[in-house]
Design brief:
Elements: H1 16-39, H2 46-53, H3 67-90, H4 97-114, H5 122-128, H6 136-161, H7 171-192, H8 196-208
Helix pairs in contact: 1-2, 3-4, 3-6, 4-6, 5-6, 6-7, 7-8
Length: 212
């Protein structure tokens, strides 16, 4: 009979192997976001992402069931990240509602310039590739755009209540118009390596808002 006392189960941090699994998975997702915002889904090989993280070739399926599952998770991750950015601006009550929209635009412009216009919007980039993507992406991308649209509509509703825009303004249509135009402006900014398309779109958006 073993007379030695049984060691109590350690509490706190999970086993190192599990930590490494979670950390590696997170690193793969981060690398995926970086590469896909520059190149898109179809032009990105898994080998490039694995090499960035230092994961041996062939180990990808230890972390994700498929490239499609990986891509869908990236859509969710980017969508949530961007929604948080929108909330940070649109819920900033130290600014008027329309000033919050301008602050978001300025933040986005700074981000594009910081990365040398190589990175655009992952959701917009994937939307342009939809013809070559699995059908499972369609609803996920549409849902992400709709979520962003609803958040902007909420801010425009606040602008209407603050008398910054007309009582008759259709905030849902205005929000839809904004995202349709904004994604085109981001694409053009990447192409021209210039903030001019973003400025042009933003100027016309605010000029065309129905005023009281």
């Amino acid at each position: 009979m073993d007379t030695h006392p049984t060691s109590p189960r350690r509490r706190g941090r999970p086993p190192k192997q599990r930590d490494e699994l979670v950390d590696t998975r997170a690193l793969l997702l981060r690398a995926g976001l970086e590469v896909l915002t520059e190149k898109g889904f179809s032009a990105t090989g898994l080998d490039e992402i694995l090499k960035r993280v230092g994961v041996p070739k062939g180990s990808f399926y230890h972390y994700f069931d498929s490239k499609e599952a990986f891509g869908l998770e990236l859509v969710d991750l980017y969508g949530a990240f961007f929604a948080k950015k929108l909330d940070r601006h649109f819920h900033n009550h130290t600014l008027s509602p329309l000033a919050r929209v301008r602050a978001f635009i300025d933040d986005a412009k700074d981000g594009m310039a910081r990365y040398g216009y190589r990175r655009g919007c992952l959701i917009g980039t994937l939307g342009q590739e939809m013809g070559a993507l699995p059908e499972s992406f369609r609803l996920r991308l549409h849902g992400t755009f709709k979520d962003w649209q609803d958040r902007l509509a909420g801010c425009l509703t606040a602008a209407r209540q603050a008398n910054e825009i007309a009582d008759t303004a259709d905030v849902d249509q205005l929000a839809a118009f904004f995202w349709i135009g904004w994604e085109g402006a981001v694409l053009r900014a990447k192409l021209e390596q210039s903030l001019s398309p973003l400025d042009t779109f933003a100027d016309h958006f605010f000029t065309c808002l129905p005023r009281r």
